[in-house]
Design a protein that fits this description.
Helix content: 40-55%
Shape: globular
Strand order of the largest sheet: 5-4-6-7
Radius of gyration: 26 Å
Number of helices: 13
Strand content: 15-25%
Largest sheet: 4 strands, parallel
Number of strands: 11
Length: about 425
C-alpha cells in the first residue's frame, strides 16, 4: 500500500514522503506512471533501503496503489517528480536552401528585426519587401552556394552537432535536461524547439544564445524572441537566459587551443581576429560588445604568448547603409600588413560558435583572397591560414556544458536534500 505523509525535520516544514511496501520490480513502473516521470532512485532498490527525503514546495495528491508486501522504503516525491529542463540553443539561422526563393523569406525575417534595422516599420517594410527582398537574394545566392554542404548550411549542421553532443554529455552526467536548436531567424525556429521540448516532457526552459559576447543585435534580440515565444506556451516557464559567456575561462582556453591546433605562431607572423561589426550608435547606447571582445582576445593572446604587435582585431560584415560602424574592417588591417611586407598570416572569427556565411565567405574566401592578391602585386608569396570556428570541438562542448550546467543549477527548484539514512 502507498501512503503519503507530511512531516517536519530540523524545523523545516512541508516535507512529503511516500511510505511504500513494495518490491523493487513493481516500484519503478508504478511510481513512474503515477508521477509521469522516471523515478530517479536507484534502479535496484535494496530491501529495507531508505532513500533521500527532499523538500517539496507544493503538496502532492496521490491515489492509493496496492503492492505485494516485500520491501519497505521512503522515497522522496520531489526526486521522482523533478521537472525536466529544456535547453534552447539559439543561433542566428540560415535559409532553408541556397536558392533565392528560400533566401528571400529568411532575409525578410532577419531585416524586419528592430534590433537590426531601427527604421520605423511603416517606412522600412515597403523598402524591404518591394526592393531589397527582390534583388538581394539573387546576389547572395552564389555566396551561400559556395559554402553550402550536402547536409545543409554549415551553421545548421554544426548547430545540430553541438546539440547532439550536449545531449550526450547531459545524459552521461545524469542531468534531467534536453537540448534543442531554435534559430532566431529561419528554421528550425525557436517555437519549433519549444514544441519539441514540451512534447518531450520539459516544463522549465533555459535559453542559451550561442554568442560569447553580448550585443543588441545578437543576445538582446534572442532574449526578446524566446520571451515572446515561451509566453505562447502556458505549460512552459522561462527560468534562465544565458547572456554571454565571454568571461568563462573555458572560452578563451578553447579559442587559444583552436588556434594552436591549426597554426603555429612565429615571430613576425600576424593573427587577425575578426568579429561581426555593430553600429557605433549601439555602443553609444550602452552596448559593451567591443569591451568584451578586447578582454577575451587579450586573455587568449596571453595564453598563446603572441605579442600585441603581431595580432589585431577587426570588424567585418558592415551593412551597406549610412550608419557609422565599428572599425577597422579586415581589409584595412590586411592592406596595412601587406604594405609592411608581411606574408604569413592567420584569420579566425571568435565571435561565432559555428562556421557560417560570414566566417566562410567574408573571411575565409574574400578576406584571404584579398590579402593574397595584395601580396602577389608586391611579388610576395602569401602564406594564409583560416582557423575554423569552435564548432563541435570537444573543448567547445566542455564550455557549453559548463554554461548549461551553471544555468540549470541557478534555477531555484528545491532545497538540497536532507539525508535521513
Amino acid at each position: 500500500m502507498l501512503l503519503c505523509s507530511r512531516l517536519t525535520f530540523f524545523g523545516k516544514p512541508s516535507y512529503e514522503y511516500i511510505c511504500i511496501s513494495a518490491s523493487s520490480a513493481v516500484l519503478r513502473p508504478a511510481l513512474a506512471h503515477i508521477f509521469k516521470s522516471t523515478a530517479r532512485f536507484a534502479s535496484q532498490l535494496p530491501r529495507g533501503a531508505i532513500d533521500t527525503a527532499i523538500h517539496r514546495k507544493k503538496p502532492c495528491i496521490l491515489r492509493t496503489v496496492n503492492f505485494p508486501a516485500h520491501d519497505f522504503a521512503i522515497v522522496s516525491i520531489m526526486d521522482l517528480k523533478k521537472e525536466k529542463i529544456g535547453i534552447v540553443l539559439i543561433n542566428t539561422g540560415s535559409p532553408d536552401s541556397p536558392d533565392p526563393q528560400d533566401i528571400r523569406p529568411y532575409l525578410i525575417e532577419f531585416l524586419s528585426d528592430r534590433n537590426i534595422i531601427k527604421v520605423p516599420p511603416a517606412i522600412w517594410q515597403p523598402i524591404l519587401r518591394l526592393f531589397i527582398a527582390r534583388t538581394r537574394p539573387k546576389k547572395t545566392a552564389p555566396r551561400y552556394q559556395q559554402i553550402w554542404t550536402p547536409n545543409g548550411s554549415p551553421l545548421a549542421v554544426e548547430s545540430r552537432a553541438q546539440c547532439d553532443a550536449l545531449n550526450k554529455r547531459l545524459a552521461k552526467a545524469g542531468i534531467n535536461a534536453l537540448c534543442e536548436v531554435g534559430m532566431r531567424y529561419g528554421n528550425p525556429s525557436i517555437n519549433h524547439a519549444l514544441q519539441r521540448l514540451e512534447a518531450a516532457g520539459c516544463s522549465k526552459i533555459v535559453a542559451l544564445p550561442l554568442f560569447p559576447q553580448t550585443a543588441f543585435s545578437t543576445v538582446k534580440t534572442c532574449k526578446e524572441a524566446i520571451q515572446d515565444q515561451v509566453g505562447k506556451h502556458p505549460n512552459l516557464s522561462l527560468e534562465a537566459i544565458v547572456e554571454g559567456y565571454n568571461d568563462n575561462p573555458l572560452y578563451t582556453q578553447a579559442l587559444a587551443a583552436s588556434i594552436r591546433d591549426v597554426w603555429e605562431y612565429r615571430p613576425g607572423s600576424k593573427l587577425l581576429l575578426s568579429f561581426h561589426s555593430i553600429p557605433l550608435a549601439d555602443i553609444e547606447a550602452g552596448d559593451t560588445y567591443v569591451e568584451q571582445i578586447e578582454a577575451s582576445v587579450n586573455q587568449a593572446m596571453e595564453l598563446l604568448e603572441i605579442p600585441q604587435s603581431d595580432w589585431a582585431i577587426a570588424y567585418h560584415s558592415r551593412f551597406e547603409d549610412s550608419r557609422a560602424w565599428v572599425t577597422p574592417h579586415p581589409k584595412t588591417q590586411l592592406a596595412q600588413w601587406a604594405a609592411e611586407g608581411v606574408s604569413r598570416i592567420a584569420l579566425v572569427t571568435p565571435g561565432f560558435a559555428s562556421d557560417c556565411l560570414e566566417s566562410l565567405y567574408d573571411i575565409k574566401s574574400v578576406a584571404c583572397d584579398f590579402f593574397c592578391t595584395l601580396c602577389s602585386q608586391n611579388d610576395i608569396t602569401a602564406d594564409v591560414t583560416y582557423i575554423p570556428c569552435l564548432n563541435h570541438r570537444e573543448d567547445h562542448i566542455d564550455l557549453l556544458f559548463n554554461v548549461v550546467k551553471k544555468a540549470i543549477e541557478s534555477i531555484d527548484t528545491a532545497e538540497k536534500p536532507t539525508n535521513l539514512a
